[in-house]
Q: What sequence folds into this?
């Protein structure tokens, strides 16, 4: 365990604010549960805290659409989780927008994270501020940790495009298995059929 993080005070517009001062060797995964007053959805990437910018309407609606379909389609032995971290190792605890985990991995209402061995699918909806992380950093880390399926969701004129990847176990890298517009229909990690045009049903 690293030394306990310290805080220093920064004055912005004459209002004092506390900013965490990281340990010399960086934060570790447990710090996300210990640091006071972290912004919602703070992630740990390579020992550094990553703060999430306010999300766009597309991001919110894409998450809601996929979550609703996944919840309806998931078999009883799997659970669909929104915005909860995966502890990939001591220095990495990213938070996918959605994940599908083994139901047996539920440790109770106080649970704050999952282990990669219990996650079968991680989903990232790309935002302008998170493009590099969602397209490169996080999928590389998910693959190295052995998470078998990854979806990346991008906006094309306000409609979602889903890039689907599957883990190649020999190389521990993701390989693309499809790009889906209008309709996402796959058989793994379970059978699912999503009408992507329903992202904004009020305008149909």
A:
């Amino acid at each position: 365990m690293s030394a306990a993080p310290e805080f220093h005070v920064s004055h912005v517009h004459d209002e004092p604010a506390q900013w965490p001062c990281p340990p010399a060797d960086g934060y570790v995964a447990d710090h996300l549960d210990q640091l006071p007053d972290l912004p919602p959805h703070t992630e740990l990437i390579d020992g550094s805290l990553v703060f999430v910018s306010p999300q766009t309407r597309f991001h919110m609606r894409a998450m809601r659409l996929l979550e609703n379909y996944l919840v309806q389609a998931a078999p009883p032995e799997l659970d669909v989780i929104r915005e909860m971290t995966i502890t990939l190792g001591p220095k990495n605890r990213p938070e996918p927008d959605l994940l599908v985990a083994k139901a047996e991995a539920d440790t109770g209402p106080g649970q704050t994270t999952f282990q990669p061995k219990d996650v079968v699918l991680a989903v990232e909806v790309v935002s302008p501020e998170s493009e590099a992380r969602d397209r490169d950093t996080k999928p590389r880390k998910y693959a190295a940790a052995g998470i078998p399926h990854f979806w990346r969701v991008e906006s094309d004129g306000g409609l979602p495009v889903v890039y689907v990847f599957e883990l190649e176990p020999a190389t521990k890298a993701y390989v693309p298995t499809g790009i889906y517009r209008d309709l996402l229909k796959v058989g793994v990690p379970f059978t699912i059929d999503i009408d992507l045009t329903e992202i904004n049903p009020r305008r149909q």
